[in-house]
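Mods, move this if it's the wrong board.
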Amino acid sequence: MPKEPYHLSADQAQTLSELEALAYERLASRGLGGLDLPGAYLEAARRLLDAKSILILTGFPIRGAALGETDGPPGALALGNALERLGIQVAYATDDTSAPLLALGGPKLSLRAAIYPFLPEVDETTLERLYTDFDPDLVFAIERPGKAADGLCHSMRGEVISDLTPSLDLFFELAVRDHKSTLAIGDGGNEIGMGRLYEAVVKQVPRGETIAAVTAADILMPAAVSNWGAYVLAGTLSLLCGRDLLISAETASDLLHTMVDMGAVDGATKRQEATVDGYSFEENQAVIKAVHDLLVPWVQ
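Not the wrong board. Structure tokens:
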């Protein structure tokens, strides 16, 4: 990959601001109002472009559901697709309820990324072995449960879900140890990486004192919906590279509907339907279409 600073013209910078607004404009609905971090998506894209291998952590289990939620895996697949198209190696670490959703990346997007599912009782040695063997340049978390101050993972409802899923915070800890970048997208405050806004989450988010994740990302990208953050980040990569690297709205629809047909649920409603975090199918489609519309002047 070229090692350039990826400077933006004034017009491109305006487009970037409009892209970020798509991720930030509904933050208040999640209790994260005023916590947007302008420039985070640009800096994250630059770090991604300088990496050769990236480990992506995703998947959020829902108590009572056969598979995980509809937020996280779609965005992780969209991002993995963009990275692989740039020649960057990708691997996914997740739990066993989200692995089947990520497995759609092969048949739907022709992704080559390996998927590593872990059970709740996985030991740290096993996680460290994957980290050592894959040897990522960067670790990225999107909509992945993070440990709270009590050492447990919690849902937005305050439920303890550590019996449903392993903690994957260790991958961030290992990256920090090795002076490697850590990036994260989150929308609730209880995800890996959101520790960067820990005090604000405790104060602003309902049940924040219980659910707030403690593990911080070097670069945190808050989003009203984590999938939307992934679409904006893929759009930012597209803007920097002059190539449309974001999956189409039609492909996003196909991924979402296929995941729901398999058993994925909306994390906010716990219903098996083509919605994400309580937002309708149409609202979700409007975001990815808006990203594509903003990219039209800049990509081939």
